[in-house]
Amino acid sequence: MAVQINPSILSADFARLAEEARAVEGADWLHVDVMDNHFVPNLTLGLPVVESLARATDTPLDCHLMIEQADRWAPQYVEAGASSVTFHVEAAAAPVRLAREIRAKGARASMALRPATPIEPYEDLLPELDMLLIMTVEPGFGGQAFLDIMLPKIRRTRELIDKHGLQLWLQVDGGVSASTIEQCADAGADVFVAGSAVYGAKDPAEAVRALRTRAETATAKASWACGH
Ligand SMILES: O=C(CO)[C@H](O)[C@H](O)COP(=O)(O)O
Ligand SMILES: [Fe+2]
């Protein structure tokens, strides 16, 4: 599978979201961080903003829900126009039912793990998902330092995906930059979220291209990618 780069609008100017979305044309997805001030200590945006953004850009929306009561809210983000919806397993009462509901409504279903949440208890759920998100910072804020202690979890998850012959994407989010993206690709990630590394750059579209080149080069050399 080709490498995908998803700029996070958390680091964009919220007063100019449509323009900021256009500034990263060439990106695979636009990563939209929804925070409710309960699941994480920060508040960002919700359904009305996602609805407007979906109308304002042709880039598909990858909504990362850092909110409680995921079972209640996640399906509504599909209706609002998200093409991929990620819920946190820590906030979902019935993750299998929720993933099926997201898929039935026509979006890709994705599940996220906080840094302290292990992958192993969820091995049997993987076929229900289109993507798994491994957080490489504590969720809540952009611009934090990459947690390299998450690299073994990325490796173990890639092994599980391959063991079951699954097609699901493995996304990393938090502190992904020119200096950390290669380690993530080498460990087995194939979808990369980058907020400050893209929107903090002078030329965000060029930053996306540079990240893609680094990730592609590292993936080509990675042992897990042989035969993919
Ligand atoms: O989910 C997130 C934070 O909870 C963001 O997507 C993430 O932090 C992106 O920002 P940066 O690349 O600056 O770390
Ligand atoms: Fe995110």
From TrEMBL:
Free-text cofactor note: Binds 1 divalent metal cation per subunit.
NCBIfam families listed in its UniProt record: PRK05581.1-4, rpe
Protein name: Ribulose-phosphate 3-epimerase
Reactions listed under catalytic activity: D-ribulose 5-phosphate = D-xylulose 5-phosphate
InterPro entries from the UniProt entry: Aldolase_TIM, Ribul_P_3_epim, Ribul_P_3_epim-like, RibuloseP-bd_barrel
Cofactor: Co(2+); a divalent metal cation; Zn(2+); Fe(2+)
EC class: isomerase
Tree of life domain: Bacteria
Binding residues annotated for a divalent metal cation, in chain numbering: 31, 33, 64, 173
Assigned protein family: Belongs to the ribulose-phosphate 3-epimerase family.
Binding site for substrate: 8, 64, 140-143, 173-175, 195-196
The protein's annotated pathway: Carbohydrate degradation
Originating organism: Streptomyces kebangsaanensis
Residue positions of the active site: 33 (proton acceptor), 173 (proton donor)
Gene Ontology MF: a single term: D-ribulose-phosphate 3-epimerase activity
EC number: 5.1.3.1
Keywords: Carbohydrate metabolism, Isomerase, Metal-binding
Role noted for this protein: Catalyzes the reversible epimerization of D-ribulose 5-phosphate to D-xylulose 5-phosphate.
Pfam families: Ribul_P_3_epim
Record keyword Transferase present: no
